[in-house]
Amino acid sequence: MPESIVTILDIAIGGLLLGGIYALIAMGLSLQYGVARVLNIAHGEFIMLGAFGTFTLYTVVGINPLVCLAIVGPIIFIIGFLLHSTLFTRLRISAPNPGAYEASSLLATFGLLFIIQNIALLGWGADYRAYSYLNFGVDLGGAIFSANKLVILGFAIGIGVGFYLFLARSRIGKAIRAAAQDPAAAGLMGVNINRVLAICFGLGAAMAGLAGVLYSMRIPLNPTMGLQYTVIAIIVIVLGGLGSIPGSFIGGFILGIIGEIVTYIDPSLSLAAYYFIFMLLLLVRPKGIFGK
Amino acid sequence: MVSRDMDITRFTSKGFFIPGLISLVILIGLATLPIYGSLYNVVLVTSILMYIILTVSWVLFSGPTGYMSLATAAFFGVGIYASALFLPTTGAVLPVLVVVLIGGLASSIIALGVGALTLRLRGIYFAIFTFGLVVLIMELLNWWELSVSHLLGRYVMLVDNNVIFYTMLGIFVLIMLTSFFIRRSKFGLAMRSIGENEEAASHIGINVTMVKVITFAISAFFMGATGAIWATKLTYINPHVAFNILFSFMPVLMAIFGGMGQIYGPVIGAAIFAYLQETLQTEFPYYYMLIFGIILVLAILYLPNGLVGLVQNLWKRRPGGQHADT
Amino acid sequence: MPILEGEGVTKYFGGLAAVSNVDFHVDEGEIIGLIGPNGAGKTTLFNLISAALVPKPGTIKFKGKNITGMKPYRICRMGVARTFQSVKIFANISVLDNVRLGSYFGKSPGLSSADATREAGEALEFVELSAMSATPARDLTLANQKRLEVARALATGPELLMLDELMAGLNATEVAQAMELVKKIRDRGITIVMIEHVMKAIMNVCDRIMVLHHGEKIAEGTPQEIATSDRVIEVYLGEQANA
User: Which of the four, B33, B53, B175, C74, has the lowest number of CB atoms within 10 Å?
Assistant: First the structure.
């Protein structure tokens, strides 16, 4: 296979992979903001927890990272669920109006960011960690691609699609969508709003955690890594349209592909490129692709 | 939580006299500190003043309007880098005060741009954009230093500790005066009306976007100016040091804990936490940040009007206290 | 020349036309009533005039000048003021300061502090709220909050005042007082357009009435003509009981 084609395929796969990760993260944040109305600035910290959880489970206990998906995911879901049931529900109920709740919950997540990050720093230290998993090459028609890249890509898309189907088909999914549209009406129809919102928050956190599990196979880890992913997730949900889950799925892939291309040109410019897109968006079409 | 308490500034001559007197005493005490205080104290108070300025600047805009700016660290960092550029250890230098001014102006110009872009949209876009700004500028500078200038980090010229102290004190006095006069002015009233009900404010003739952008730029000016003089204390800076999200977080914590209803609430909050940070950060680096995070969450939950608000409420609960305010 | 006129004013939300191809004109010194069942588009029309929303398509002119697409603050300074269906006073600010904001910013050029305070005081006297000057607005009764909103609007020195359901939530006495206030305002030379559901007020106070239904203007005329119009009665079947 000619080298230019290989390069293009490499970028494509890398872009889809990055896109898949971004899509998962963004869908999680979209669920939290779109339904539970919490702009979770600590979102990236759940990615970090997922990543470090996997690191520890794999290097200390020897559990396969892919199996970690099934362990870390539920744990982070529970953490998110509990956080919302206690902290955010309390804020929501005592807020004089929705705008005040948006502000206070945002600041509360700001506090959470520092809490979670520093717990991680205390637990794992400030050095970079990494582990190696499925780090061999796979031959596809003459071109070599890293196995973990393909696996991550597959799982990311799988989880993303599964999540979307869950929202669209299941009973809880319907309750979530009802709560997103009109919390009061949904409450009147027997939906336990507090529980549904907490589930949303937990699911959102879990999505971030799962993204962290997957991505930890390829990147070095550090307790301060979460912040940049939060910024990226935010840009994606604005791109896709605040409150739109399919939007964040697609937006994630768009940004991922752009990011991979920019990285090919100059690695340290990708965040700047995202931000440039963000600025353009705010100038031209703030409500994004599928925004209401 | 974000308290837009009724600022019934009691400007009866009696009500004005006592706070004014206290402020004067404190000011004189501070101005003479280098004479009777140790070097350690001077440096410590310089730090505390820095945090107070950042907090009061943050409250200047985010308090009355209710727009959550998380860009404090960005403007602070811009000021720091201005210092690095114009007060280098080798080559031409500008006078310290000019550099401080440059730091302030550079930050306000960026604030004008950010404001014009985002303040005409819903508040959440503004919060998001300002949050990402810190990370963005840091990444950009990182890239620049790695790929273009090949000069990682910069050294800032050494400046006498007392000069740093008095410059910081000067900025502090300026921000307090600015804050005081804006609060009393029709501009300040307009800001509060925007925070109360932006739509109504725009319909009674207030150019809402302009008011927001100008106030944002003013608050950024002080953050940048402070950064510029702070850099001379750090002496070595790089993008990570200059653009640390911590400096967006601390003013928020200090303001919420102190309370935003009165002008001195943020000052008290900043003084407490700045002192705590300076003393704890060497011994318990991650623990104190963890506790600060917890305190912020608790303050949001249980201290909607901050410490000052809490004290005011307790003061009102005393027998006969119900008649005090309106 | 009418003080306010609109041509082909339309506004879509998604696929739904909240206001559809409405033409209207208001002459100086008139009191115009705007009625229609809930959801007819009355408040949307107000929002289009006060520039909270932009008509697409359609044009609106004030005193002959095209104001379509102008920012709300500029329209206010030109002489259009309004109140809101859900009272939008500045809750944590004193009554006097609420009104003073109108004096300070609603006119161009702006006023000095002393002048603004004086004018605000006059506006408060006009609506009989002077006694409450220092009270935080949130502590007022609903009826008084509505009066405060009117005072604040008046402080901006309008030639046209738009009242959105001024009488909603008021008891019979308060409605009568509100009607008197509206007449007093007109006597000052201010043109008024009012959205109302309280038929008694509309019929007694208005010179002309416009009826909206599903975003379209279905009738226009004197109170007499409207009250006897078959079309209007048909649309309001069931709502007559509230008159």
Answer: C74
